[in-house]
Request: fold
Amino acid sequence: MVKHVILWNLKDEFSAQEKESIKQGMKEGLEGLKGQVPGLVEIKVNINPLPSSNADVMLDSTLESEEALKGYAVHPAHVAVADSKVRPYTKSRVCMDYEV
Reply:
């Protein structure tokens, strides 16, 4: 099994209200990938960080293998969500993949 964890920060240009809407869209879009992408075992998106956090959104996903992770990265459903609900709104991304 492989964990795929990402932290994003949203662009500063968005209001607090816009950011809440964007975060909800990211959560719905990414969590909606479960059952669509082969090898994706679990996917959760946290959009409610504590004030001590320095990230706006966290993706915590589990895939069957490193090969499944590579497939996830290029899967059309994932690319569509990333291109429409994530990339246009984020200014930074940190990722860590590891075996469990």
In short: Residues 9 and 52 are 14 Å apart (CA to CA). The chain has a mean pLDDT of 98. DSSP finds three helices and four strands in the chain.
